[in-house]
C-alpha cells in the first residue's frame, strides 16, 4: 500500500514540476556524455519479453567506433547500465561489462554489434518484474525505475565518468517465462544519492558541439542539421542535474492513463 501510494505521489510530482523542453532533440536524449539515447523515451510504460534500449555511441556520426586510434582525443571507454529504483529498492545489473550465464546481464555494450553506431540493448526482464499493470501491493517489484546509464569516456582530451538516469515505468505486461533470471542473481546494493554524486563528474553535453577525435583533426562527420527543441518529444521534457546525477522530468497526457 505504501509503495502504491509512493508510486502515485511520484507520478503526481511529475505533473507539478515546472517543465520546459531542453535536451531532447528530434526524440534523441542527449546524456551528460557522448552516448545519445534513441529509445525508450522518458516515462514510457514498458513490458514485453525484453527491456530494449537503443544507444547511439557515435554522437550522431561525430565520433568513430572502436577500435579508436592510439591516444584518442575522444572515446567511450565503456558503458555500464543498471535498472534501479529507490521505490522498489532494486538495483539490477543490465550490463557491468561481463556477461553472466545466458546473458542474464550483458557483456560490454561498446563491443556488441561492432559495425553499428547504435547499440541495441536487449535485456530479458528478470522474474520479479513479471506481471501486468501498475503495482497493486507493497510486495511488488514493478513500478517506477531508472535506466541508469554510466559512461566512462574522454571528450576533447578530458576523462570523465557520468551517471544519467532515464525514468521508465515497468507497468506493461511481462509474461512469465522459464528463461527469466532471478532478480536476486542480478541485484546490487543501492547507494545514496550523495554517494552517487561523489562518484561522478559534473559534465554537460551541449548538443551539436563538435568532438575532437585525434589531436589534429575534429570529428569524422558533419554536424547534425539544426533542430529546434520543440521537435521530438515536444513540450514537457527537461534534463535536470540534481547535484551531479542527471535525470529527466517529463509530463505527458499518456501518464494520466496509467493513474
Ligand atoms: C531516479 O533518479 C533520480 C535522479 O537520480 C532520483 O531523484 C529518483 O528518485 C530516481 N527514481 C527512482 C524511482 O528511484
Ligand atoms: C571502464 O573504463 C574505465 C576507464 O578506462 C576503467 O577504469 C574501468 O575499469 C572500466 N570499467 C569496466 C566495467 O570495464
Ligand atoms: C549473449 O550476447 C552476445 C552479444 O549479443 C551474443 O553474441 C551471445 O551469443 C549471447 N549468448 C547467449 C548465451 O545468448
Ligand atoms: C556483474 O553482474 C553479475 C550479475 O549481477 C554479477 O554476477 C557479477 O559479479 C558482476 N561482475 C562484476 C565485475 O561486478
Ligand atoms: C547499483 O549497483 C551498481 C553496482 O554495484 C553501482 O555501481 C550503482 O551505483 C548502483 N546504483 C545505485 C542507484 O545505487
Ligand atoms: C557533489 O559532488 C561535488 C564534487 O564532485 C561536491 O562539490 C558537491 O558538494 C556534492 N554535493 C552534494 C550534495 O553532495
Ligand atoms: C571540442 O573541441 C572542438 C574543437 O576544438 C570545439 O569546437 C568543441 O566545442 C569542443 N567540445 C566540447 C564539448 O568541449
From TrEMBL:
Superkingdom, taxonomy of origin: Eukaryota
List UniProt keywords, sorted A-Z: Signal
Q: Where is this region: Disordered?
A: 207-229
Q: Where is the signal peptide?
A: 1-21
Polar residues compositional bias, start-end:
207-218
Name of the protein this chain belongs to: Uncharacterized protein
Amino acid at each position: 500500500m505504501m509503495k502504491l501510494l509512493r508510486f502515485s505521489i511520484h507520478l503526481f510530482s511529475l505533473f507539478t514540476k515546472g517543465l520546459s523542453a531542453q535536451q531532447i532533440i528530434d526524440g534523441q536524449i542527449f546524456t551528460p556524455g557522448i552516448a545519445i539515447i534513441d529509445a525508450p523515451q522518458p516515462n514510457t510504460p514498458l513490458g514485453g519479453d525484453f527491456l530494449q534500449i537503443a544507444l547511439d555511441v557515435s554522437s550522431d556520426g561525430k565520433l568513430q567506433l572502436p577500435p579508436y586510434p592510439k591516444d584518442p582525443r575522444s572515446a567511450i571507454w565503456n558503458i555500464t547500465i543498471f535498472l534501479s529504483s529507490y521505490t522498489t529498492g532494486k538495483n539490477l545489473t543490465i550490463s557491468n561489462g561481463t556477461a553472466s550465464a545466458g546473458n542474464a546481464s550483458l557483456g560490454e555494450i561498446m563491443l556488441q554489434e561492432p559495425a553499428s553506431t547504435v547499440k541495441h540493448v536487449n535485456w530479458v526482464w528478470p522474474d520479479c518484474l513479471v506481471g501486468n499493470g501498475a503495482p497493486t501491493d507493497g510486495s511488488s517489484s514493478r513500478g517506477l525505475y531508472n535506466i541508469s546509464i554510466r559512461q566512462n569516456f574522454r571528450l576533447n582530451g578530458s576523462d570523465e565518468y557520468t551517471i544519467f538516469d532515464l525514468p521508465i515505468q515497468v507497468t506493461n505486461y511481462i509474461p512469465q517465462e522459464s528463461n527469466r533470471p532471478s532478480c536476486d542473481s542480478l541485484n546490487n546494493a543501492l547507494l545514496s544519492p550523495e554517494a552517487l554524486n561523489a562518484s561522478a563528474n559534473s559534465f554537460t553535453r551541449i548538443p551539436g558541439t563538435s568532438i575532437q577525435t585525434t589531436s589534429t583533426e575534429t570529428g569524422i562527420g558533419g554536424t547534425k542539421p539544426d533542430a529546434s527543441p520543440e521537435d521530438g518529444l515536444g513540450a514537457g521534457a527537461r534534463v535536470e542535474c540534481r547535484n551531479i546525477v542527471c535525470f529527466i522530468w517529463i509530463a505527458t497526457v499518456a501518464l494520466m492513463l496509467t493513474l
